[in-house]
Amino acid sequence: MSGARQVDVLRLGLGALFIIAFAITALVVMPYATLKDVPPPSGLKAYTEQQLRGRQIYIANGCIYCHSQQPRDPSIAPDQARGWGRPSVPADYVIDKPHLLGTMRTGPDLFNIAVRQPSEAWHLGHLYQPRAYLEGSIMPAYPFLFEERTGPAQPGETVVSLPPAYAKPGVRIVPTPEAIDLVAYLLALDRSYPVLPAEARR
Ligand code: HEC
Question: How far is the CA of 95 from the centre of ligand 1 (A)?
């Protein structure tokens, strides 16, 4: 390789390294430095063991591909008017590892789903068959999170009560522990606590 050519290759390599270093600084190092000490809002409750298990089921079943968890500011989108809650702030996410912000909104934002739908029975039935609750819903059904049982009811068994048109005579739809944990997680999604102006600014 000629001397001039070697210098070109060196320049190209250094240029590429500079761009990568710049991108890492701007996209990883600076956001981390800005946000690492954000304190949790006083109203934010830590997840229980059960809710954390449910969170894993949420991840495993791809709920994030259709549901965001980030109500936006009224200047950007009418999320508050849609009933999805105040705009979220970084402090809301300090206990979320990994965060589940999501990018797609095929379905509604779920950041505050427990506020507008606090019923465990509704969530169980809706997961078993969304179309039983909303005609024409395009949300997939999750029947594999439930068992169909016949015979006498067992003590302590939770039975899904479906709208009459979807109930199967003589068959009980019983949620698996995964379904119960998932709904426990959904019922933890309540960020209606106030955030202080100082927390919102960050
Ligand atoms: C293919 C996209 C899609 C996937 C995947 C999906 N959903 Fe949905 N979801 C929707 C749509 C569309 C709606 C609105 C219609 C309805 O209520 O059924 C919805 C509604 C909901 C609602 C009610 C929201 C409200 O504001 O009333 C909840 C709760 C919910 N989904 C939870 C889940 C969970 C938990 C999972 C994963 C197990 C999941 N969804 C997976 C599309 C999806």
Answer: 23
